[in-house]
Amino acid sequence: MNSSPTSRPELPWLRAFSFTIFGTSVLVASYFPLFYAKLGFSNSQIGLLYALGPMISLIANLFWSVASDKYRTIKKIMILLLIGQIIMSALLSVSTQFSVIIAVITMYYFFYYPAFPLSDTIAINAAKRHNKHFLTVRIFGSIGYAFFALFIGYVLSMIGSSRTMWVAIGIAAIALFITCFIKDQDSPVAKMDMSGIWGILKQKELLWFFGCVFSLAIAVRMNDAFLTVTLNQLGASEKLIGWSQLASSLSEIPIFILLSLYGEKIKELPLLVFASLIFAARFFLVSAADSAGAIIAIQLMHSLSFGVFYVTSIRMLTRLIPDHYRATGMALFTIAWSSASGLLSGTFGGILFERFGRHDFYLVAMGFALLAGVGFASRYLHRGPRLRATGADVSPAANAKAGEEIR
Question: Which Pfam families does the entry link to (predicted)?
Fold first, then answer.
């Protein structure tokens, strides 16, 4: 445990950084689609712009991971990422043509996505050095997400969605300032071990798990891409959209705490079936909702859907995968949950939303969630959980290695 006087401020600065960096996550997830809509882009175009992020994240995470390993620094890489975000946000603020925005947003995503696994890595290592629980740092990210969800909504309601990118510049600039006070670390981000993929793919239990996760992820990413567009169509202001994000982000915190304390008493597959069914019910209710206020109320189901799924899926994954394949398994999980599903749901979902409307769009999302639930249930009923004890670490610190892209 490092307890020297000069090291004591490290955790408060990391908490401040975690709090701030999630403001950019709020913007990308909730207000970028609204920004595109204000520019007059169609739903299929918005879906394509959303799908670019997961595709670019595959390349960006690998590139910056290699750079972090080669130059033995995380802080300097983080500074470069934040400067890149600021520059790309400035270019986006003056761009209106779809072709230009595609090029610029591609570069923005290149600097945006790797910031989260890097920040998790710094926080995990610092928490270990100070003999603290990782949750003491990571929970400030959830609090920051809730704060910025509401704060950004109020700001944009006053200055207009056309100035979304100026808010992005401001948040990234604050994060850049805080980064200057963070202690550098030479621990690289865990990378995918290509030699371990075959060993993982031979496990039928794990393949079934990834297939169900992918089905559920398509539904979730469809909702992520078009929730703010749906709220806007129902007459919600930026301020009200902020309240919807606040409701979902705050609701997940007590579930995380409860499952960390008592979740081990319940088998994983029944919990995953439960989460899938709650997701399905949530999407069905959104399809039938006739007001923005109703959708905000439905957002409270985020705790029982995403909250239960997140904690339980990482817990199951750490038990199914041996320690020496852990980085590979986490990388494959991220591809299934965020990258591949985001690419498919963005392109497919945009066309679906534009041609058939919100009602049918969310019914299709409900169908994918139900399919995942049936998959988890059939595996449990047919063979049982069959979770192999590996002595895996299922602490929040291990969970965080799945990356922020899971949100």
Answer: MFS_1_like
Q: Cβ of 323: how many Cβ atoms within 10 Å?
A: 11
Q: Which residue has tokens 């060993």?
A: 199
pTM of the model: 0.71
Residue 361: enclosing H or E segment and its boundaries?
helix 340-383
The whole-angstrom separation of Cα 377 and Cα 398 is 26
Contacts of 28 (CB under 8 A, 6+ apart): 53, 112
State mean pLDDT over 359-386.
86
The span from the CA of 335 to the CA of 337, in Å, is 6
**What residues make up the domain containing 97?**
10-406
State how far the Cα of 406 lies from the Cα of 221, in Å rounded to an integer: 10
Residue 20 and residue 143: Cα distance in Å, rounded?
A: 10
- Whether 182 and 16 have beta carbons less than 8 Å apart is answered as no
- Read off the CATH number of the domain in which 72 is found: 1.20.1250.20
Q: How many residues are there in the chain?
A: 407
Q: How many domains does the chain have?
A: 1
* Structure confidence at residue 109 (pLDDT): 92
Q: For residue 395, what is the DSSP state?
A: S
- Per mean pLDDT, which of 55-64, 141-150, 328-337 is the most reliable? 141-150
